[in-house]
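Good morning N.,

You mentioned wanting to compare the apo and holo forms, so I went ahead and generated the holo version with adenosine-5'-triphosphate. This is what I fed in:
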Amino acid sequence: MEQEDKEEFLRFANVKKTYDQKALVVKDFSLDVKQGEFVTLLGPSGSGKTTVLMMLAGFENVTSGSITVAGKPITNTAPYKRNIGMVFQNYALFPHLTVAQNLAYPLTVRKMPKSQIKEKVAQYLKLIELSQFGDRHPGQLSGGQRQRVALARALIFEPTLVLMDEPLGALDKKLREQMQFEITRLHQKLGFTVIYVTHDQVEALTMSSRIAVFNEGVVQQYAPPDDLYERPANAFVANFIGENNLISAQLSKGAGTDTIDASLDCGTPLQARNGNCSTSDTQCIISVRPEKLVIKTDNQPYDNQIAAKFITRHYVGDFIRYYFQLSDGSNITVKTLNDTKAPDFTEGQETVLAWMTNDCFAFSTHSSRDQGE
Ligand SMILES: Nc1ncnc2c1ncn2[C@@H]1O[C@H](COP(=O)(O)OP(=O)(O)OP(=O)(O)O)[C@@H](O)[C@H]1O
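and this is what came out, ligand included:
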């Protein structure tokens, strides 16, 4: 990937933050971002994502640790001198100024000559395809148009770093998708570095070059979207990103190796890839995604299989979600494409589910990265 050749641009090193001098809301945050990357912070509510952005922007001080941009510490630099663009969910446009005046504002405060400002505003209005709307006020625009103006205003002074905190949170699904496309297009065209916060996993997976999954102020995994989805580092990430069946099991052998033998609590033996189990683990959590499970209808061989009882199925349009129960009462979900092969069952009917070892992980039961590590 071309990003690999680039220098580290932004670096958080062991950043900690407390608001009340008691509890750390950011416990030990370290992250390297390369120039031009699109990095998303993803995590449950209250895990410290906005706090990290605020410290980077300079609106909150850092309790300890350092933040450097292009090798220089910025923690003592005033916010307006950090040259960082910001986009928030609520647009934050000046309602009494026209669209063109809103765009001109960051250039005026930077004392750019008037003729250049005019040129630049026209260029950015064109970039966001709102050339005809320069004389309107924000109140005369749709939500999507307003957010495009907010985006252009954050970019017009050519910041090297742009922070976006839930920028599309107020938009409906269709507009959101259009704006995701728009932000990606501008990012590719202009080459700035983005630190993005969202609750929307699909948004994070489709837009980011790398995602940092947060829990309780600590990064659990920092990786490109496909790695995160296909190779979660621990049970927290496996559970947080996408859907997963997480089933408790006993380790039989192989905890120090790449492939593990285990038996589910219902007694069924299986093989799994070693997610992060060590030789000290005796129990583990088996994770297998619903779309990797197959409802057996023929004799095609699979590495693992298990008897299950059909409970119900939900029609979701392009796919069907089946709910089954294992003999120990635990539940398991299967997702299949809604095609002619999607089977029908009656409630309580016995069937067999199957999957490949490669699609299945064993994770330690005490594996999430926390402050103790
Ligand atoms: N100004 C503040 N004063 C005191 N505590 C704060 C302040 N801002 C945030 N917190 C606390 O810090 C923790 C992290 O909050 P933060 O907003 O960074 O999380 P988040 O991951 O962005 O959450 P969300 O996804 O809900 O926006 C929370 O427990 C929150 O209550």
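The radius of gyration is 25 Å.

Happy to go through it together on a call whenever suits you.

Best,
F.
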